[in-house]
Design brief:
By secondary structure, the protein is an alpha+beta fold. Strands 4, 5, 6, 7, 8 and 10 form a 6-stranded mixed sheet that branches. The chain has helices at residues 3-13, 67-70, 73-81, 102-111, 166-173, 202-217, 223-238, 246-258, 263-277; strands at residues 18-22, 26-27, 84-87, 94-99, 116-119, 124-129, 135-139, 142-145, 151-152, 162-163. The model is unreliable at 43-50 and 176-195 (pLDDT under 50).
């Protein structure tokens, strides 16, 4: 039995829904059975959606506490290829405040009640009892992972878990966008330097963004590739005229994350599309 599988079974016994992560800390993609949305998707929080696929095919929604599923043949093969164990905090009734750097940790000590703390590669996870909507970049270096999200399992940490405070809930309420801000170079300057859109009307840009959102939302397979192509299409039309704003990019990132893409993958896809176009 692999170490990841053993860890997953231990967590599942504590009613913590788990899933395997492949290299890059991302979930496993759809299997053939689930391609083209033949499975109907798995939209619910605890595996009660229409999909009956036995594999870890649906990101955070695939997380389960069922040991028979976790230890099944298809999952065993995934565990052998896995680089880490993840869990669905919202499914366990938890919220993770992900603090990415020392400044974020200092802010948390000053503004949030003490709770169970888990060290991470760059910072800390603060765990609270209670679930809420997930939101990224609620402030510099701070993400919230709870419902419809997954977090890498890094151990139980130290301290006593506190109940989810209003101060954390308020962060998501005041945050209109649930994705990381685009990288600094997202708003591309125009060739002329005017920053004005060279297209017919602002509605032309809005329609292009809406079409890209729809393309991503309706993707039934190859989500990674679909997201990249949608980003490429937007940038090829609007990437040089200076009309794209962080709000437009956030709309695209939100659509991609709703399909299971991570914020890091969104940023990478956007950067790759810009590089391809020479922007």
């Amino acid at each position: 039995m692999s170490e990841h599988l053993r860890t997953a079974l231990d967590l599942a016994a504590s009613q913590i829904p788990v899933l395997p992560l492949r290299a890059g800390k991302v979930p496993f993609g759809n299997c053939r059975r689930c391609q083209d949305n033949a499975c109907g998707g798995r939209p619910n929080m605890k595996n009660f959606g229409p999909c009956t696929c036995p594999g870890p095919c649906h990101g955070w929604a695939a997380a389960t506490t069922d040991p028979d599923v976790i230890n099944s043949g298809i999952w065993r093969r995934a565990w052998l290829r896995a680089s880490a164990v993840a869990y669905h905090p919202g499914g366990a009734g938890l919220t993770v405040v992900d603090l990415d750097n020392a400044d974020a940790i200092s802010w948390a000590h000053e503004n949030l009640p003490a709770t169970q703390t888990v060290p991470t590669t760059r910072g800390e996870h603060w765990l609270y009892l209670g679930r809420m909507q997930s939101a990224n970049a609620v402030r510099p270096g701070v993400d919230i992972k709870s419902t419809m999200a997954y977090a890498r399992w890094r151990g139980f940490g130290t301290g006593t878990m506190a109940h989810l405070p209003d101060a954390v809930r308020a962060l998501a309420v005041s945050k209109p966008c649930t994705v990381r801000p685009a990288p600094p170079a997202v708003t591309v300057p125009s060739r002329s330097g005017s920053g004005q859109c060279r297209h017919r009307t602002p509605a032309y840009l809005d329609r292009g963004i809406a079409m890209a959102e729809q393309r991503i939302t309706e993707a039934r397979s190859a989500v990674h590739a679909t997201v990249y192509r949608a980003f490429l299409a937007v940038l090829s039309t609007h990437g040089r005229c200076g009309c794209l704003t962080d709000a437009h990019v956030s709309r695209l990132f939100t659509a991609a994350q709703a399909k299971g893409e991570s914020a890091r993958h969104c940023t990478d896809a956007w950067t790759n599309a810009r590089t391809t176009l020479g922007l």
